[in-house]
Amino acid sequence: MDSSSDAHGRHRCAACFRQFNKMEHLVEHMRAARHSAHEPRCGLCGKHCRSFEALRDHLGVGGSTLPKATACADAFAARGCAICLRVTPHHRASCTLARTPRTPQAAAPPQGGGSGRALALGCKMVGAGSDGSLDVVARVCVVDEQENIVYEAFVKPLIPVTHYRYETTGIRPENLRDGGGAVTVKAAQRRVQDLLLAGEQPWKVRTSRGRARLLVGHGLDHDLDALGMDYPAYLKRDTAAYPPLMKTSKLSNSLRFLTRTYLGYEIQTGHQHPYEDCVAAMRLYRRMKEQGHTRRGGDADEPAASADQAFPAWRQRELERMTPEELLRLSTPDYRCWCLDD
């Protein structure tokens, strides 16, 4: 019996520990699963999980314990941190971040170009249309990596507002009038674009980053669409679309849930300031970026176009003779981990 088989002749995946009766089934599993060193992992048994939600289930965080993970769940309950999911006693206090106070516009720091290689964008919408269900941008905020406001403004919508959603936005009609300091959508778009491009030409950024900044946010496509903007996908860091932060069903989690679960404080209570959303998204990005993943170097950490690049069909017989550990070393992720950002 080779090293890839257990006592019952089954073949176990070195990442998720699933077992298969035939080696060819394990190879097919590796081809489909796209396991890599950049997946969330249990600090006790080393199991790879597709998302942090799956890891929380594995560790029994929040009362959900999988039948086969009771040993990890018991050990984690004794000395684990429910926020960062690390197995380190007396660690929770350093993981729980203090709630960022809502910052009124008058108290905003001097607006400049910001520092760091990433900016967070947050927008607040009001309602338009006959029933007020059409989202139009009414307030925009941009924050740098040090959580300083580099741009903030009320935005005058292009079409009449029928619902100001004051209970959550805190926006009044006078905030969006010409005399209230509101800028046009075009002016807000131009300012945000200038901050992101940092002097680079828009056509050049589509293929080469240069000095352009990464754009962090939650539901970025919605915010950019409201501003009438476009930005290259490879420069966007969207916490709503990042696979490790999504649900096991591959649906997005709300920013409020992600902040409470992985940062340890509450947001979006009462009147909501876009600065609060920007800070939460930036903190989530930094937390994901600082994951201590093992890098293999070269293109091994970059997402491949398809699993066939790592497990081509013409190598099937050779792959079936490999051990599960060797197959895992060949596997490439299907998303780009944020820990690879400069």
TrEMBL record:
Protein name, per record = RNA exonuclease 4
Q: Which family does it belong to?
A: Belongs to the REXO4 family.
Q: Which domain of life is it from?
A: Eukaryota
GO terms, molecular function: 3'-5' exonuclease activity; exonuclease activity; nucleic acid binding; zinc ion binding
Instruction: Give compartment(s).
Output: Nucleus
Q: What are the annotated GO cellular component locations?
A: nucleus
Q: Which InterPro entries match?
A: REX4_DEDDh_dom, REXO1/3/4-like, Ribonucl_H, RNaseH-like_sf, RNaseH_sf, Znf_C2H2_type
Question: Principal localization?
Answer: nucleus
Q: Which UniProt keywords apply?
A: Exonuclease, Hydrolase, Metal-binding, Nuclease, Nucleus, Zinc, Zinc-finger
Gene3D superfamilies referenced in this protein's UniProt entry, alphabetically? Classic Zinc Finger, Ribonuclease H-like superfamily/Ribonuclease H
Q: What is the protein's species of origin? A: Setaria italica
**Does this entry carry the keyword rRNA-binding?**
no
Biological process (GO) annotations? Answer: RNA processing; rRNA processing
The protein's matches in SUPFAM superfamilies, at most eight in alphabetical order, are given as: Ribonuclease H-like (SSF53098)
Which PROSITE patterns does the record associate with it? ZINC_FINGER_C2H2_1, ZINC_FINGER_C2H2_2
Entries under SMART domains matching the protein: EXOIII
What the entry lists under PANTHER family is as follows: RNA EXONUCLEASE 4, RNA EXONUCLEASE REXO1 / RECO3 FAMILY MEMBER-RELATED
